[in-house]
Amino acid sequence: MIGAPNAGKSTLVNKLTGTKVSIVSPKVQTTRTRVLGIMMHQNTQIILVDTPGIFNPGENRTLEKAIVKSAWEGIENTDAIILVVDAARTRMKETKDILEGLSQKKTPVILALNKTDKAKKEDLMTLAKSLNEAYNFSETLMICALDGDGTGDLAALLEQQMPEGPFLFPEDQASDMPEILLAAEITREKLFIHLKEELPYALTVETESWKRFDNGDLKISQIILTAREAHKKIILGKGGAMIKKIGTAARQELEEIMECKVHLNLFVKVRENWMEKDEHFSLWGLER
Ligand SMILES: Nc1nc2c(ncn2[C@@H]2O[C@H](COP(=O)(O)OP(=O)(O)O)[C@@H](O)[C@H]2O)c(=O)[nH]1
Ligand SMILES: [Mg+2]
């Protein structure tokens, strides 16, 4: 999956795998690294590579640059490429840049016009036409990743393109992301959803400890690292109200995913230069 930020790539991966493997928010750049979603269709295992959106990284923005690099690397050595475009808000500039980057690849590219629920039919047709004039797509599909409209057709199409071979993952596995990392991602998603504007970009979440009790309950401690004291105040909120809201939302979702009771402790720490430290990059498989 490749596409501009916010096109709906992660939503689509979650829909196709039938479970949450990648976090989603209305903000751009929610996905920071390559995430694998593993789906079965008929007798075929299809491994979906969710990538961060492609955008123009700012000068001196090490994290942004690493994110975009990881997105392009995500589509190397794949059997098919799906370009996801938000049909309601095409971000033509980014989409054009992506098409330019794709033009050097031999892999067939499927165009998936997403968010059909929000776009007018005639606009969809015009968009499909102009994009097909700009690039030689192998197929064009209209989908709604949110409710799954058209995603079955996409799965069937992918199935045909997969080469024969042994399954690369156990049939019941949905992601290559370790639970500890996924748990941190869930909390980061809630921070993205609840915090305003730019703030979520300046923070990261790390799982510090993970303990299973005899009764099956999980105790998870996580650290939210932020670059500034002022940010910490906002994350905590008045009388700790914000962190409580975020913690509750994350805990509820973790309980659903882990299928057990979860005790979640969140700590907010200020570490001015966390973004400059290698360890926070390598944890995500990102390269500085
Ligand atoms: N209305 C509508 N919203 C969608 C659809 N697919 C994704 N979204 C929303 O678009 C936003 C960005 O989605 P996300 O999957 O994080 O995009 P990504 O950045 O490409 O991974 C989220 O708020 C999603 O709920 C869709 O088919 N219809
Ligand atoms: Mg995403």
Number of domains: 2
In terms of per-residue confidence, which ranges show pLDDT below 50 for 5 or more consecutive residues? none
Strand content: 15-25%
Question: Main sheet?
Answer: 4 strands, parallel
Give me the CATH superfamily of the largest domain. Answer: P-loop containing nucleotide triphosphate hydrolases
CATH architecture of the largest domain: 3-Layer(aba) Sandwich
Note down, in words, how this protein is organized.
The protein is α/β, with parallel strands linked by helices. It has helices at residues 9-17, 62-74, 92-102, 121-134, 151-161, 179-194, 229-236, 241-258, 278-282, and strands at 2-3, 35-41, 44-50, 81-86, 109-114, 139-142, 203-212, 218-226, 262-270. A four-stranded parallel sheet has the order 1-4-5-6. Strands 7-8-9 form a three-stranded mixed sheet. A hairpin with a 5-residue loop joins strand 7 (203-212) and strand 8. It is globular, with a radius of gyration of 20 Å. The structure holds guanosine-5'-diphosphate and magnesium ion (MG). Residues 9-10, 22, 30-31 line the site of magnesium ion.
In short:
The protein is an alpha/beta fold and 288 residues long.
Provide key terms for this protein:
288 residues, alpha/beta, Rossmann fold, GMP Synthetase, Chain A, domain 3, 2 domains, 4-stranded parallel sheet, 3-stranded mixed sheet, 9 strands, globular, binds guanosine-5'-diphosphate, binds magnesium ion
SSE layout and pairing:
Layout: E1 2-3, H1 9-17, E2 35-41, E3 44-50, H2 62-74, E4 81-86, H3 92-102, E5 109-114, H4 121-134, E6 139-142, H5 151-161, H6 179-194, E7 203-212, E8 218-226, H7 229-236, H8 241-258, E9 262-270, H9 278-282
The structure holds guanosine-5'-diphosphate and magnesium ion.
